[in-house]
Amino acid sequence: MIIAVDGPAASGKGTIARALAQHFGLPHLDTGLLYRAVALRVMDEELDPAREADVVAMCDFDDRLLADPRLRGDDVGKTASIVSAHPLVRAALLQRQRRFAQQPGGAVLDGRDIGTVIAPEAEVKLFVKATPTIRAQRRHAELRKGGANVSLDRVLADIRARDDRDARRSDAPMRQAADAALLDTSFLSIDAAVQKAVAMVEAAKARGGAPASTR
Ligand code: CDP
Ligand code: CDP
């Protein structure tokens, strides 16, 4: 069983994908980390993230980089959304994600284009969303906890800019797949969101395909 979990920044998709992987005993890949790894290398090398050819040369990296705590930084997320708009960068990271999705026994992947491009064949597709203000509040709380001194307005502006870039790019833009079920976490606790996601997957499994709300 392949479970595709897509959605914008701080919608809760990572938390939900991890919980689903644990619940169903499946391996999990946070595909945002791949773009973040490329972004971190671009930043370390002081390259211009807008120069596609330079960025493509950063796409062949060791899996160990995915454990680097610096990948979680907000500046890295922002650069990731710039480098991820380059078609050649997306192409360079495609096979890695497809291989993960297609391993025997199944997998959970979360990102922006899992249900539409990486694994359109996924048995279960969730599109997780929450209002921009609520997502900004969540990200702001995380950043404050990490010691960053940044205003909520700044975080909200960054989230909107990132949503915009991710949804408007021509190659694999962020969008809900036609056969994906929508999960709005705006007013759900983490536990409630996870419970709902588990129930959606169970329902999809029971009917041997896409989630109930799409049928
Ligand atoms: O992966 P994504 O950026 O979509 O979001 P996340 O990392 O799963 O969640 C972002 C933040 O929101 C985390 O601090 C979560 O604990 C929190 N969260 C929440 O407050 N309520 C939810 N229903 C889901 C996540
Ligand atoms: O955790 P958060 O949602 O803030 O970001 P992320 O999932 O780590 O993704 C960082 C950036 O990578 C996004 O803003 C996207 O531009 C890009 N990305 C993408 O284009 N396709 C994916 N499947 C995953 C991430």
UniProtKB/TrEMBL annotation:
<keyword id="KW-0808">Transferase</keyword>
<feature type="binding site">
    <location>
        <begin position="7"/>
        <end position="15"/>
    </location>
    <ligand>
        <name>ATP</name>
    </ligand>
</feature>
<dbReference type="Pfam" id="PF02224">
    <property type="entry name" value="Cytidylate_kin"/>
</dbReference>
<keyword id="KW-0418">Kinase</keyword>
<dbReference type="InterPro" id="IPR011994">
    <property type="entry name" value="Cytidylate_kinase_dom"/>
</dbReference>
<dbReference type="GO" id="GO:0005737">
    <property type="term" value="C:cytoplasm"/>
</dbReference>
<dbReference type="GO" id="GO:0036431">
    <property type="term" value="F:dCMP kinase activity"/>
</dbReference>
<dbReference type="GO" id="GO:0006220">
    <property type="term" value="P:pyrimidine nucleotide metabolic process"/>
</dbReference>
<comment type="similarity">
    <text>Belongs to the cytidylate kinase family. Type 1 subfamily.</text>
</comment>
<keyword id="KW-0547">Nucleotide-binding</keyword>
<protein>
    <recommendedName>
        <fullName>Cytidylate kinase</fullName>
        <ecNumber>2.7.4.25</ecNumber>
    </recommendedName>
</protein>
<dbReference type="InterPro" id="IPR027417">
    <property type="entry name" value="P-loop_NTPase"/>
</dbReference>
<keyword id="KW-0963">Cytoplasm</keyword>
<dbReference type="InterPro" id="IPR003136">
    <property type="entry name" value="Cytidylate_kin"/>
</dbReference>
<dbReference type="GO" id="GO:0036430">
    <property type="term" value="F:CMP kinase activity"/>
</dbReference>
<feature type="domain" description="Cytidylate kinase">
    <location>
        <begin position="3"/>
        <end position="201"/>
    </location>
</feature>
<dbReference type="GO" id="GO:0005524">
    <property type="term" value="F:ATP binding"/>
</dbReference>
<keyword id="KW-0067">ATP-binding</keyword>
